[in-house]
Batch of 2 targets.
Target 1
Amino acid sequence: MLAILDYEAGNQTSVSRALSSLDIANAVTADADALLSAEGVIFPGVGAAGQAMDLLRSRGLDAVLRRIAAGSVPLLGICLGCQIMLEHSEEGDTKTLGLFKGVTRRFADDLEDENGDRIRIPHMGWNSAPRRRASRLFDGIPQDAEFYFVHSYYVDPEPEAVLATTDYGKTFCSAIGRDGLWAVQFHAEKSGRFGLKLLRNFYEYCREVADAQ
């Protein structure tokens, strides 16, 4: 079973529905024991970094996430869950989890598209995320596959953590991680068949890890 972290940051229901459509057993929970004993954990979210971190800290879930990341339970962050995996966010000048080195930054207001037109913030809609290095998370997903984005901030991690990038006024990192610890800026649960394939890939990896223990 996959556990979906419940910290009142929204979007848990959409993730649960996507997993259920794949016949993947899942539960939305804030219980530390349930999270630590799950086959894998998904850390989604929409909203503000500061409020999310306050909620995580107030429930001790920041420490639980660090234990998960340091242990054998695979973890997947989505959108806000991706952004607050880094050390710091410019949104509210917020200290975040520090699972990856780097900073979450706001898109500059003066960015332009390829035609010289000012881009709109937030970045909202479909866009590709071509890979910079191979990852189990993207197995069977074409390089030109598009995913659904809604965000005003983007992750700027250490270079070795970058898995995929996306162009929107600038080239930014849209997926980070290593086997067993991943995060994506786009909403996989709202990204059609390729988003569902990514969630399936994560689950299959989780099963392999569980079977090997």
Target 2
Amino acid sequence: MAQSNGTRAAVTGLVVIVVVVALIASGVGFFRWITTLWVQPPSAPVVRCEALVNGTTADLTQEQARNASIIAGIAAQRGLAPRAVSIALTTAFQESGIRNLDYGDLDSLGMFQQRPSQGWGTAQQVMDPYYSTGKFFDVMVTVDGWQSADIGAIAQSVQRSGFPDAYDQHVPQARVLASALSGQTPAAWSCVVRNPSSPDPDQLLQALTQAYGSAIQTESTPATEDQPASITVTASTDTNAWSVGAFAQSWASQTGVSAVLVGQFSWQASPTVLSGWIGTEESTQSSTTVKITF
């Protein structure tokens, strides 16, 4: 005979009580059980990148990391100090979360929420992160004292936001990221590379060339039966070499990068952990040379 609704409810209630009592008795606790069962998602590798500078960390998603690496690359191309990267990242954090948004207040678009109606360029142009970064730097370098004045104030001078004090909250994180991505602090950047795309050296080569311009020279080696495809980059300075290494890591998930060698230090992509840089005596590379393997 089928149980009545009342009987089923009583049985269900009794089961819950028994479970709760058992959990309490075992020291687990009801709240923790509920959290584990219904709130926490299945464990999985976190897809992210991290800067570690003087014991301080700053994290970005892969999307943010690619955009941030473009900012660092354009700064290197123009010979701008890492401080310029800090200012641009501070601004992009506040305006878009370092994402290339196709929407915004009024006609604002892109990483820096630049408005075509205010002379920043066409909608298509400001949606191009290379272009929008370049336009940001065009205005930034005209601000008196940008090399030493308050970073939030410089960002406000460029953007003329209705919330001038909002930039300040992002300055500490932006500084850490800028130091790692610009190469000012060597071996300070790493990314988890979960489910990487198929190797696409051409995409990375195009991105590197567009970002760094004449600050680097590149040579591409296609894959053979005996070895994978690779890109060799000769940078103008050691600092730019480390910046290129961070750029390659930031694009690893998108382009299938498996390893990066900067001078005598190597990094191997991992799907589960933030791999560190390891010195390798076998390498005879110059400190301004970067080898990117797919």
